[in-house]
Each structure stands twice: as structure tokens, then as C-alpha cells.
UniProtKB/TrEMBL annotation:
Keywords: Membrane, Repeat, Transmembrane, Transmembrane helix. GO terms for molecular function: monoatomic cation channel activity. This is PKD/Chitinase domain-containing protein. It comes from the Bacteria. One of its GO terms (biological process) is polysaccharide catabolic process. Pfam families: K319L-like_PKD, PKD_4, REJ. It is found in: Membrane. Residues 432-522, 527-621, 724-815 form the PKD/Chitinase domain.
Amino acid sequence: GYVEETIELGDIDTWQFDGDAGDIISMQITDEDLAGLAPLVRIYTPSGAFLQSTYDHNVARFDRLELPESGSYTVVMQDANISGSSGHHQTGDYRIYFVKPPVNEHGSLINGGYVEETIELGDIDTWQFDGDAGDIISIQITDEDLAGLAPLVRIYTPSGAFLQSTYAHGVARFNRLELPESGNYTVVVQDADISGSGGHHQTGTYRIYYVKPPVSEHGALVSDGYVEQVTDFGDLDTWHFDAANGDTISIEIFDIDLGPFAPFGQLYDPDGLFLTRFIDHDIALLNEYPLLKTGTYTLVVQDADISGSSSYEQTGPYRIGFNLEPGEPEPVPPSASIYTPGSVYRFETITLDGSGSTDPDAAPLPLTYDWTIVSLPVGSELDPGALDDVTSDSATIVPDVSGEYVFSLTVDDGLFTDIAEVTVTVMNRAPVAIAGEDREMATGGVVSLDGSDSYDSEGDTLTYSWSFVDVPAGSSADIDEPAAVLTSFEADIQGVYVVALVVNDGEANSTADTVTITVIDENVAPVALSSVPLEALVGDTVMLYGTDSYDPDNGPSPLSYEWYFGSIPVDSGLTNADIADSTTDTASFVPDVDGNFTVWLTVSDGELSNSISATTYIGALPVCSLNAEAGANVTVDLGDVVSLDGSNSSFTDACTDVAFSWQFVSVPGGSVLDNDDIANRNTSEASFMPDTDGAFVLRLMLESGETVSADNVTISVEANESPIAIAGEDQTQEVQSTITLDGSASYDPDNGPSPLTYLWQVVSQPSGSNVALSTPTAAVSGFFAMLPGDYVLSLTVSDSVASDIDEIVISIEAEEEPLRCDVNGDNVVDNTDIMAIFASRYSPATGPDDPADFNGDGVINVLDARGCVLQCTYTNCAVQQPQ
């Protein structure tokens, strides 16, 4: 664009523009009044250094000036002293035209057409066109008035670098210019100083004709016929034709008037690449030219500069004759195409549809298909050959984990192949948390939380997270085990407790489910829960189950039950009396007509009651109705085999191919069990062996076609408590006595899993002893101690899973010999004993152990008394120890 201002006497005007180092600018400054003002212009760098100056009458110019640094440049404008009179006193209006590519003042060039504009005094016009690296373009710029304007045209790349320029009187041209980069190119148009006078002041109207093949301005050539058109001054006409590889063409361009117009044809292939040209006076001919590509070709027609004057400005009507000789058709490769949904959920079948693949020439053989797995997500256990129907036009696979699955299809027509790939994202369904039914509780009671009805539709095992959403003000309630499927908290004060449960399947959290516990300081109403089939047939027995109903505070009376009809079809003749066992937890009725039967159950604890309704649809035609019953929750000991009993599940006769399957919903921390550890998991009765204590939640699924029923069961596994062995207190006994061992005080805290067994064993015994235990596997045992010393025995008790050991020490003492000379047996030999021996002298000994027979000769005499004096306990045979 331009700016405009007035120079007054002696005036010095300043302007600025921004630029970066390396930018290229052009600037023209005009005397708009043509009244003597000679523009003198200087440019200063952002640092204030003088860069360059120019001056001239009428139009002063800077042409393709490269900027040395980045920043704001200063332009200084004043009158120049061209005459040498040093007057610098001319005044007048001036304009500054400024261009810094890339820039676009007037818009885009038209491929296959032209744009038109007017150059004013000193004007610099800018246009733009889009191109890719390697494109070939042709441009011709015409002086439409033929009044002296000499078009000077420059092209700048998308990065602003100067590419090429041209100028001429009449028609300036770029012919088959190859573009070096992709982007928006800038075309700059101004008057050229062809005469060398430095004027650059011619004005006038110009056109820019622009061609970038492939393009067709005038339409298709006619095979074995002709088309006609008139070329304008500097015009570039474009035509097209379709051909195949191997075809041969002949083209004749004829100057109808046989005037100065010299036909000039240029041929481009379907990719826009230049092939050949043909020129002549009157008739330009391209004869039997072979084509090597299939597609749409472009023919450009213009006037040729045969005279060498570079005018390219002759006009006139012309005719194009065209002939195409088809060659042998080139074999066309097939094209592989895959259609499949971009995403599915885990365990949904992925269907890969390659039926959209094509072979345009259907030769040389019918298409064959080959499907392969390119890649599977981490963790997938699918085999690379898991695809079904890999040689048909469609294949299927069932994904086992979430993530990206990449598949490829190769199609083959016997000569060529083509491959297509597709990526399918497999998503994980979030699990469903079920925190239980809202209920009332009594103050101070323990509130049980049961998340065992939560499930994951894809069978992933779950982890649990319980948390309080709200508790009454002042409550200090705390959830015992927030990560357990079965947990509890103590409702310490009255009010409303809201607890949230979130379950996770290893990839995603569920939406939180909440349960509201209302704690009151009075009798709590019971909760009615009923189960009825969704559908049944006329004449079938419809079972009504209220066995899940419960009373939170178990009182004041046992639950009572009452079943009754809420609504029945108009034509039904049933009454409440037709409900069998209507006052028990399990009732039934036999429907007599089609329609909806709504049945109510009311349960009462003697003071308060609660009711619930359920509706079953009775049809005349067989319908499939499934009712999965996983059995009652049970508690077992670790080490027991858990039997899973779904035999109470039911289904109607209309259900076919009913499939049973058991799967783990959750396992306790530390367990490594998975679904493969469930024996007979695809039958109604299965089993598994727990590997740790805690709660195992399993889900029984019944499926018949699209009809599904599921039920959960919780198996609470308790760790076995070790028995306690009690062998009894240590004992001291005499030699050669019978010892009794009594372990009957041993006990098992949990009385299982099996009755206690006992085993008595000898740990150690005196040297030479050989103890034989009586009944060593009974609670009471014994042995005969032949020798003195310590006997150590152990008792092992076992409940078949755990055992305990206790030891007992039996100390056996040797029999003491009587103290020799101690006649009175007071354990002291003194004068009393000596006198007794004297009194008994000449008497026979009572036996070998007679204490008076010191020398053991069988007779009591003086020698025995003398010997015993030497054995006195105290000095001088005193009767007591001297003080």
C-alpha cells in the first residue's frame, strides 16, 4: 500500500517501518503533483546508522534492498537539489509505496484465468498464489493499453526470498518456472525503466495470466474432432484430455486466420510435470506422442515468439484437432480397504470388513485376502493367529484387554498386491458399585456394609473403597476396613449416615454408589425384599420369594409375611386366596390369563412393617425367563474346598442352550486366584480352594441368547486358629514308679476344622533308659520310670491344619539308703544312737540295712559302737550342734 503527505518549504518528513535482518524491501516515492518536487529519501537502521539514499524527479526508488538488522527503520523524506542550485525549496504532495514480501494487496491469481488492475504513478502492486515445491507455473503480464507501461514483475518465495524477475514492453513472462518450496508466493508488479531514464513513472492497466497444471480453462479436447478458441493479447489458454498409460496422441493447433499468430503448445502430465512443446507458423503439430501415465493431461496454448522479439503478443482464432489411439490397457493394482468401528468394548467381537476392496480391471485373477494382526496391546494373551476367517473378505476377533489393536489386510490380484491397516481402540467398561439398600438401624448398633453385589460386566476382579459422605454432627464413626467388600462401622449417635462405595476393576473406577443409614433410638422397621420372575406363561407356577427380607434390630417379634395382589388383569379371576403360602417367606400363584400381575409383600416385626411390590408379565406364548441363584452366603475355614451351588437357578422351557458360568468378582488381598481356578466353572455346581482368608465374591451368570441373569454370592473364609497343647505340670517321682501323662487340658479355639489329635513323644531320657509310652496317640498316656534322672516328653496336638507342641519334665529321684548308725532315725548320729547300739550288743542284726550293724557282720557288738562313734554328726557325739 502507500502513505501520502505534503512537503512544505524546507520540510523534512520522517516515517518508520519494521523489519528483520535478511528481509527484502522495495520502496517508490512519487511527486504526485509533477510540479518540481524531487523526492530525496534516506533510510536509517534501527541503531540510527545511515543505510542508503535515493532521489529522482517524479519517482525515487529503492529496489530489493536487503535489511542488515532487525528492528524499526527510519525513512527521511525531503526535496532534493537536483538542479544544483542548493535550493531544496520545492514543495508538493508525495506518496510512499512500500513492499516487504510476503504481502498481498490485491488477492490471489486465478489458475487458468487472469486478474486485472491499474498501475498508478510509482505504484507497486502485490498479488499471491499458492504452490508446492516442484510445481511448474507460467505467468504472462500484459500492458492492456499499449500506452508505454512496461511490466516489471518479481516473484518472492513464501519465506520472502527473491526468486526471479522479468520485464518487457507489451508482455512480460515467466515460462515453466519450477517452485522451490511450498506456501504462498508473492508477485510484485510495477513499471519498468526500460529506456534507462530512471523514470519508472508509466501508468496503465495490466492483466496477469496464470497457469499451474493440472488446469483446464476451456474444457476437454474432442478425440477425432476439434475445438476452437480465440487467444487474447498475452493470453494463456488451457485444455485437458484423459488418457491411459500406453495411449498415443496426435495434436494439431491451427491458426485459422493464417495471420501473425504462431501457435505454441505445451503438454503437461497428470502430475503437472512438463512433457514437451511444439511451435510453428500457422500449424503446430505433435504427432503420435506416447503417454506413460494414466490420468488427466493439460495442454497450454499461447502465441509463440518465433521472430525473437520476445513480444508473445499476437492474437487470433485457432483450432485444435485431437486424436487418441488407445494402447494396451495397463494392469491396474487393486486397492485394499478396511471398514470397522473405530472403537469397541472388551470381549465385543471386532468385525474387520474388507469387502470394499477393489480391483479396477478385475484381472488377472480374482482378489484374494490375507488378514494379519500387526500389534496387540500390552497384556493381551491372544495368539497372533487368533483372527477367524483370515482368507475371506471379512475377519473377526474377540479382544481380551483394552488398548489399541492394529490389523492389516493384503489383497492380491495375482499380479499386484495392496495393503491397508486399521487401528481399533478397545475400551474398558467401568464396573458397577452397589452399596446396598438404604435402611434404619438402632443407636449403638454395628452397621454392616456389603458391596458384594457390585460387579464388572467384563468379569474383572474388583477392589473396594468405602468412605463417609455424611455423618451426624458429633459422630466419631469410622469404617473398620474401607478396602474390604464386607465391612462395618458403629453408629455411635442418632442421625443420618451416608456411605459411598467406589469399586475399581484394575483400569477404571465406578461411579460412586451410596447407601443411607438412618439411626434411630427406637424400634427399627423391617425391610421387605421380594423376587419374582419377570415373565411367565399362563398356567405356570409363579414363585414369590421374600427370603431376603430382614429386620435390622431383630425385634420385638420375629418377622411375619403377607403376600397379596396389588393389581391383576381385568379378565383374571384370581383373588388373594389363590396365593399359596401367602403368610410365609416363599409363596406362589398360578396365573389364569395374559397380562401384568403386581404382587405386594408386607413384612412386620410386630410393631412396624414395610412393603414392596413386584410385577411379572404373563404371556400366552413361550418366553425365555432366567433366574440365577448363586446360593446363600457362607463362612468356611481356610483349607476347606468351597462348593458353589447354582442348582436352584431356574429358567423357562423357552430358554435354549442355557449357559452357566462362574467368575470371581473380587478376591481378598494376597489371593492369586483367577477364574481358571474355579473347577467346573461352566456348570451349575462348581468349586474352588481358597488360598487365603477373607471375602471371596463370585458371580453366577446364566445366558440364553441375549437373555441374561446374574447373582452374586459371598464366601467368607476364616483363617484356622492354631490349637493349644497343654502337657501338664512338670513332675517329680520316685524311681521305679508309673508316670501318668495327661494332655486333656489341650484345646482348639475354633474347634476345627477337625477334632484334635494327640501325639506323645520322648524328647530325652536318662542314659540306659528305654521308655515305652502307653497309648502315645491318646490325650492320656504314661510310662514306667526304671532309672532315676530327668525324662523330657513332648505333646503335639493338631486340628489337621495347624498344630502346637508343649513339653513336660519328669524328674525321677533315686531311693535314699538309711543313714548308717542313725538308730532312732532322726537323721543325726549322736550319743543317743551310740548308747542304743551298746544296749543291743550281742543281738543279731535285723537285716542287711540295720543301721546299728556298722560292719555288716549280722551281729550288733562293741565294734559296731566304736565304728559309729566315728560317724557322729556333731563333735563328741553331742545330740545337737554346739553353740
